[in-house]
């Protein structure tokens, strides 16, 4: 995807160029990384755009500041960013839980029966998002990284600083919990119509 | 059987979530780009300082270096042309090693005899 004029360079090369004062690398990294970081923060935070924007800005600011001392070959830029983003989200969720409770989690579209026909896909995504918020933080992080972001188990293990078997266990338990939460809503979300 | 059916069901939810990509606003992109440019190191700014700059810093900057140079110049000047009044307190002959009754190599002689 030629998002930028430096699409042939990988993230690590771009970050090294950024550390040398290359403005084109700064723009290319912003274009490449912001959507990924924002998407992950948005899902981790249960669809809260404002908070996800704050986390994205914070995570990337940390990357810009880490760039001059970045040791190439040690960690992938995206792995590092996913880890920083998840930690920032978890910090925010813990603070939020302390002050306001689970009421801030957006509700799925219960009040619109017609949405099940017209916006089935969106309703499913929203229902999944709400169900994800009922999972413990680490399970949620593992499930999002594996099944929505599409990362491999070894990469998730690196991000979460655990071994691959622990990742498999987290995703398996997370999926079981999601099935239990979503099973009551299949009819409403038009699941039966698809099969 | 039930588990398999459940898996298929979850996959549909995951697929819907993957298609429903949350995109950052243009405003956020602009803010992050501005911050990236503001935080970007200036090219060549991180080069190591040269020898003289390091020496100057070790001596405490220009003031420290100037003080040290002045003290050295005073010492040399007093050595070459001592002030007249100084000989009243410190006479050349009395400052000799013999007059002080100290032989700095006496220990060395002893070591030489002992083999």
Automatic annotation (TrEMBL), chain A:
Keywords: DNA-binding, Sigma factor, Transcription, Transcription regulation. One of its GO terms (molecular function) is sigma factor activity. The keyword Transcription regulation applies. Gene3D superfamilies: 1.10.1740.10, Winged helix-like DNA-binding domain superfamily/Winged helix DNA-binding domain. Residues 126-178 form the RNA polymerase sigma factor 70 region 4 type domain. Belongs to the sigma-70 factor family. ECF subfamily. PANTHER family: RNA POLYMERASE ECF-TYPE SIGMA FACTO, RNA POLYMERASE SIGMA FACTOR HI_1459-RELATED. This is Sigma-W factor. It comes from Tropicibacter naphthalenivorans. The lineage of its organism: Bacteria, Pseudomonadati, Pseudomonadota, Alphaproteobacteria, Rhodobacterales.
UniProtKB/TrEMBL annotation, chain B:
This is Dihydroorotate dehydrogenase. The lineage of its organism: Bacteria, Pseudomonadati, Pseudomonadota, Alphaproteobacteria, Rhodobacterales.
